[in-house]
Amino acid sequence: MLNLKSVGAEPTGPSTDPAEGLLNPAETFESVSAKIGGIVLERKHPPFWWISFGIAFLLLMGLLYGITILFAYGVGIWGINIPVAWGFAIVNFVWWIGIGHAGTLISAILLLLLQKWRNSINRLAEAMTLFAVGCAGMFPLLHLGRPWAFYWILPYPNTMGLWPQFRSALVWDVFAVGTYFTVSLLFWYTGLVPDLSTMRDRAKTRFSQIIFGILSLGWRGSAIHWKNYQTVYLILAGLSTPLVLSVHSVVSFDFSTAIVPGWHTTIFPPYFVAGAVYSGFAMVLNILIPVRYFYRLDELVTPRHLNCMANVMLTTGLMVVYGYIMETFTSWYSGDIFEQYQVINRTIGPYGPIYWALILFNVLIPQLLWSKRIRTNPVSLFLVALSVNLGMWLERFVIVIVSLHRDFLPSSWGIFAPTGWDWLILSGSLGLFCSLIFLFIRFLPLISIFEVREIIASRTEGAA
Amino acid sequence: MTSTTAPLYGLTARFDSEEKLVEAARVIFAEGYRRIDALSPYPIEGLAEIIGQRRSAAPLIMLIGGIIGAVTGYGMELYAMGYFYPLNIGGRPLNSWPLFIPITFELAVLFSALAGMVALLVLNRLPCLYHPLFSVPDFQRASTDQFFLCVEAVDPAFKRDHVRELFERLNATAITEVRTG
Prior knowledge:
The complex is a heterodimer. By secondary structure, chain A is mostly helical. Chain A has a single domain, classed as Formate dehydrogenase/DMSO reductase domain (Formate dehydrogenase/DMSO reductase fold), CATH 1.20.1630. Chain A is 70% helix and 0% strand. Chain A has 17 helices and no strands. The relative contact order of chain A is 0.18. Chain B is an alpha+beta fold. Chain B has two domains: 8-55 and 129-179, Alpha-Beta Plaits (2-Layer Sandwich), CATH 3.30.70; 58-123, no CATH class. Helix content of chain B is 45%, strand content 13%. Chain B has helices spanning 18-30, 47-50, 58-84, 97-123, 160-169, and strands at residues 8-15, 36-39, 147-152, 174-179. Chain B has a four-stranded antiparallel β-sheet, with helices on one face. Chain B is elongated and about 80 Å long. At the A-B interface, α2, α7, α9 and α17 of A face β2, α2, α3 and α4 of B.
């Protein structure tokens, strides 16, 4: 056994070690494997798991009920009509896909930037990405009047002799989201393989040995395997970086290529991407903080991790604020009366209170993150992250619905009010997301074990 | 089940630290052995090069995958929009290339990532659910905190006693003869 205890505990004055504070110095290879693997293998799940999973599962059942009724009666059960034909389904789609941006950002961009703190949180964030993109992908299909014909948007040989219109941003969306989901899945599974072999070797029952044995593909940690693995993983990270920026840009084209006031603006792609990362980090924190507390992972997910994530949230939040300011400025500067009216209507029109709630949750409350006490305190950080998630949902609401409800001619003005089915399906998608997250925590290692080992190994080398 | 009469797969040594494994790999390679494998619970910088592995072919495979994806994406769009069913959309040219870029890009990334996954499996010869090394005592700790070095018997230079002697000199914790059965 390596004697890591004495090595890590030595005070060395102000340290420039990038791994400082990322791990309790007393952790060893064995203790880390036991701690992370034990969550899955030892079946000791706190009441937290059962209660949360139970609630999430009930909401999921609500979703299935809502979808059944939706398919039976059509989209008329929602509050949508002309002019607001894009309702909660699109709001939820944009919101979920934004949440799905943090995982790839953490695993790819922070890998390329050599940010070691990503190592303990990337796995959970990647899983979150997959599930969020899954939730997002469901909504455009539900939104279709004839969901059974959804595959017409795919290029496939058909007897109708039809192709999708490749000049349409809606078709780009299918390719962007489809590619993003597939690449995220590959990235996540590739990262899991070495840890699955750890699980295989630590599993006590025959059943879990066989399951983890098959899933780990027979990984044995050979130097040649590691070399190919790291090469592929690095290139995947390099590919995912422009990919993650492209996905929400393409989503924003769905809006910005239209002439609707409030949509037709060039700030949309960067503004959507910044908002996506903002809400994604908020969701990572909303999941990680309770999980860290109930599974006693404070030694692996330290205040420094929370601080780093809060910093990313603060930064992207400020970019989003810049987006709000520019949006307002551009509509005034354009001299276009419809654009100018759009801003007045957004702030003091029928949906005015929603806009001011969005400013409160998304702009004002997150400014608390300037304080280090707030950033490193799990409870306050959790609450700020919750506020950001809520604020980002309201932002999508303002973009989609408030822009649509005042058409160019007053004769085409309308008001959208969500029905119970809208709320049932929104809460149901949260149920689906949380159910998947809790099943993931239950059945797969939620922190990348081998990457934490690398931190331990680098610390040993640094001290030797 | 391992039987003593099955042909020899190789000789493995277990080490309790990264440094010992790297040192052992260096010595064994210098002694002229080429069919070597080093197994560790996390990637060790430069270890593959020490045991004679040259550059990985994965980047080339992924590049080719990416090019095929880009050509497929653009070709599909141009064929469908320009030749198969030409439609005048807002007066744009039939080959309206700026509008074809997003899908070209997405398919390049998609094909490249899929090629990377295939490259990883093929180059590593995975899935391989059974391997003779799995019968080595304590091998399950290679995925937690132990380091193994294996010299395969197919190596033309393989001499069992010489390898064993080297392993002993290199402070191996345990030495095992692995059979293929």
